[in-house]
Design goal:
Blueprint: H1 11-23, H2 35-40, E1 51-54, E2 61-62, E3 65-66, E4 80-84, H3 91-107, E5 113-117, H4 123-132, E6 139-143, H5 150-159, E7 165-168, H6 178-183, E8 190-194, H7 200-209, E9 214-217, H8 225-232, E10 239-241, H9 256-268, E11 274-278, E12 290-293, E13 302-307
Helix pairs in contact: 3-4, 4-5, 7-8
Protein name: F-box domain-containing protein
InterPro entries: LRR_dom_sf
Organism: Noctiluca scintillans (Sea sparkle)
């Protein structure tokens, strides 16, 4: 539209219209040619309910300051925040990443989803920000990040008691404890990628506290009959991912008893819709109500079953 078009429509209406067009994915690319529409992008209402993404390139400077500086303050009404701090481990980029995260916490106060990638080397600086900012988040994901310990997990749970889903890269030696269970949000529906080692009682306590529907155990997590019994007793599980090794180390997928035990676990979960394990396990063919989903190259030993 040309600049001389009479602005008889309120700016708020233009903002909501622009927001709807962007979120509807009806156009592959939008390039505003009118100065009015270019200015409209800086209005807070244009970003209401939007999903925003900070890429690594936004950490680079433009005209002497990071490119994200004038952008993030307009995101106060956004709903979901995605940030990728790839290669921002040192020098100016690391400083820019810290400032970027501080601005996100300062302005994105109504965002319900926060999804961070490549958080490496930022945990010490960012953990306090995660606990003291983003008061409205319901979904938190930390992937490609520093290994998270159970103590810090409990801190995050305590800071965000309304969390519905939490997925993170946990430290190999991090094991869920009673402290974490006591801090877990009661409304938590999704949790990954955790390790309960062989302690079925801690897992059972968590499942009693939270009506978990989606649970991903870490690939290197421990497993035992007690853990299996706790999972079987949960009536809410819809999605379940098991660790790579269930029996003796190095015996993945080689034991018929292991395959039969997995099949029995699947049958014991009445609402289970999607299931993931590792190995061959021809015994799973007896689950006729499930179909196998092809896996990507490099994870051929992963088995994903979906209810027909």
């Amino acid at each position: 539209m040309a600049d001389e078009t009479p602005q008889v429509i309120p700016v708020e209406t233009w903002c909501k219209t622009l927001s709807f067009i962007v979120r509807s994915h009806c156009l592959q690319q939008i390039c505003p040619v009118s100065r009015f529409f270019r200015n409209l992008v800086s209005e807070l209402l244009s970003w209401e309910g939007a999903a925003v993404y900070v890429r690594a390139v936004e950490l680079e400077e433009q005209d002497g300051r990071p490119r994200f500086d004038p952008l993030i303050p307009t995101w106060s009404l956004c709903d979901r925040v995605f940030a990728d701090f790839k290669d921002a481990h040192m020098g100016k980029k690391r400083k820019a990443a810290r400032r970027c995260f501080a601005l996100l916490g300062q302005h994105c106060t109504v965002a319900t989803g926060l999804f961070l990638r490549n958080w490496c080397l930022m945990e010490r600086d960012g953990l306090q920000g995660l606990c003291s900012h983003f008061p409205a988040i319901r979904h938190l994901e930390l992937s490609g990040c520093d290994f998270l310990g159970q103590g810090n997990c409990a801190r995050l749970f305590a800071a965000h008691p309304a969390l519905l889903s939490f997925r993170a890269t946990f430290a190999p030696k991090a094991v869920m404890t009673a402290e974490v269970v006591e801090a877990a949000p009661r409304g938590l529906k999704m949790l990954g990628f955790t390790n309960f080692k062989l302690d079925g009682e801690v897992l059972r306590a968590l499942l009693d506290r939270c009506a978990l529907e989606h649970l991903w155990l870490a690939r290197t997590a421990g497993f035992s009959d007690a853990v299996s019994a706790a999972l079987s007793a949960s009536p809410h599980l819809v999605t379940l991912s098991l660790p790579e090794t269930l029996g003796a180390v190095g015996a993945r997928g080689e034991s018929p008893a292991e395959g039969n035990a997995i099949a029995a676990l699947v049958r014991a979960c009445p609402k289970l819709d999607t299931f993931c394990c590792w190995g061959e396990h021809p015994e799973l063919a007896q689950l006729e109500e499930f179909e196998r989903i092809p896996c990507s190259r490099g994870v051929e030993h992963r088995i994903i079953l979906r209810r027909r």
